[in-house]
Amino acid sequence: MRQFLIVGHEAPTTPSFSLDDLAGGAGRLDILCRCVTSAFVRSHGIREDVRVHLVLNDQFTIQFDGSNLKRLNPDERSTAALIRTALENRENAIGHMPAESTPGVSIRRMGFAETVEKLKTETTPIRLHETGTPIVDIDPPDDPLFVLSDHHSFTNDESDQLNDVTEHQVRVGPVILHADHAITIAHNYLDTSGYEKY
Amino acid sequence: MRQFLIVGHEAPTTPSFSLDDLAGGAGRLDILCRCVTSAFVRSHGIREDVRVHLVLNDQFTIQFDGSNLKRLNPDERSTAALIRTALENRENAIGHMPAESTPGVSIRRMGFAETVEKLKTETTPIRLHETGTPIVDIDPPDDPLFVLSDHHSFTNDESDQLNDVTEHQVRVGPVILHADHAITIAHNYLDTSGYEKY
């Protein structure tokens, strides 16, 4: 399974944001929405063997699970609506137990460190970063967890936590890209690496 | 220069669409907006040596020119607003002359065939298609023009016109992707092909 964790440093933690202002008042939720789309959407369907974890302002983590994900459309606005519905259910997320808001979407009361700690046992965490090893120089790992940040860099605390668990720090090319574009390239690398001639 | 032409088969030809319904009433304008973002946006800036041509319902072509493009943000809604402004200026596009609506964005009264005919002399047209040659098997061409379609396939007429001018038909991987994701991978291929170790 391929998993992606994206940190939204200014992302909303209540459902009171407007779908008309995702790139402004909603703390650049547009970036996180595009990351979800890049992770799941292919032509005429979704990638079922994928999970995405959006860390919202270090307070909540929303998980999208491709194996039973419904109602995901490729546009930003409808993805933001799924996130808003998840936040409407945040009071049902007690302790570290998830609360499912729509099929395949659930919210947990967990920040970055707790989410990474939970996922590291079942994945190979990989930090996508501009100073890393070219992605084509690493062998495709089993069960990769690609960890990315939004328009801000990882904080020092986040970097320290990641350094403790990541085997690889990789970059996708010489041009520094947005997180959603990096996800598309990571997928393509994995898609093509198993094929001599695809 | 890298250029991208994307055909919007149901795209609006008047500015009367709602920014709140890009994926519905606006004829999947969300796809074209994401293509613009994929073509131009990199972290903290845009790719200046890029042009994008959006063919709207075979009636108008809107050109985005990276060398003097302003006001482009990465979210779908603000890109759609630039397209709407271009359509508000459609009456100023007389004959095949462009009408500039905002810096770097102009509209022409040209459909698919006329736009391809105009561009073929200055580019190497490449059709991105699921049955093509793997992109890694072609040498990066000079001045590529990648031609893509929205959520619909090219019509028979469009295919015939493309067959007349394209040297290559390429695919980006074994998984069939949306146009905007294919653009991201095409960029990455060109970005990395000139570097032994990026």
From TrEMBL, chains A, B:
Record's catalysed reaction(s): pseudouridine(54) in tRNA + S-adenosyl-L-methionine = N(1)-methylpseudouridine(54) in tRNA + S-adenosyl-L-homocysteine + H(+)
Keywords noted in UniProt: Cytoplasm, Methyltransferase, S-adenosyl-L-methionine, Transferase, tRNA processing
A single cellular component GO annotation: cytoplasm
Broad class of where this protein is predominantly found: cytoplasm
The keyword Ubl conjugation is annotated on this UniProt entry: no
Pfam families from the UniProt entry: Methyltrn_RNA_2
Family note: Belongs to the methyltransferase superfamily. TrmY family.
Residues bound to S-adenosyl-L-methionine: L128
Localization in the cell: Cytoplasm
Protein name: tRNA (pseudouridine(54)-N(1))-methyltransferase
Function, in words: Specifically catalyzes the N1-methylation of pseudouridine at position 54 (Psi54) in tRNAs.
GO molecular function: S-adenosylmethionine-dependent methyltransferase activity; tRNA methyltransferase activity
